[in-house]
Amino acid sequence: MSDEVKKFFNSLLFKINGLKTIIISDRDGVPILKISEDGKFPELGTKQQFLATFSIATEQSSKMLLGQNKSIILMYKSTTVVQLNKTPLIITFVGTENCNTGHILSLDNEIDKYIGEYKVILDRD
Predict the structure, then answer these.
(1) Which region among 12-16, 28-32, 49-53, 67-71 has the lowest average model confidence (pLDDT)?
(2) What distance lies between CA 106 and its chain's CA centroid?
(3) pTM
């Protein structure tokens, strides 16, 4: 990914309260970009198997005739995970239990500006 995209996502780590890690992956959960506040990646929310389950959950939820879901928020005892559906990409945000999920969700359109070209490239495959 370009330096501009990396710089944008890296800046989010300092703008969003409680955010620790951002992972951009393909629909199979293969990470394309991983950014962490301290260079460490928490086990919860960063494994390929975990990242890939979002695609499965999205596919299953679309069968309920409500349309394709845009995001999933998972809240655990000490961790919050927000996953955004940017088909064919998945953007995963991992933070503390107090992570500002509303701030993450409000960046939906801004994120599209930075990942648009990558979505087009991956859609061709």
Answers:
(1) 49-53
(2) 13
(3) 0.85
DSSP string, the chain: --HHHHHHHHHHHHHSTTEEEEEEEETT--EEEEEESSS---STTTSHHHHHHHHHHHHHHHTTTS----EEEEE-SSEEEEEEEETTEEEEEEEETT--HHHHHHTHHHHHHHHHHHHHHHHH-
**90, 25 Cβ separation under 8 angstroms:** yes
Q: How far, in Å, CA of 44 to CA of 51, rounded?
A: 10
Angle between helices 108-124 and 3-15 (to 10 degrees): 140
Q: Which of 82, 87, 74, 80 is nearest to 105 (CA)?
A: 82
pLDDT single digits (tens) 34-52: 999 887 766 655 566 777 7
Q: Is there a cis peptide before residue 31, judged by omega within 30 degrees of 0?
A: no
* CA torsion, ordered 11, 26, 33, 102, to nearest 10 deg: 20
Give Cβ neighbours of residue 67 (< 8 Å, ≥ 6 apart): none
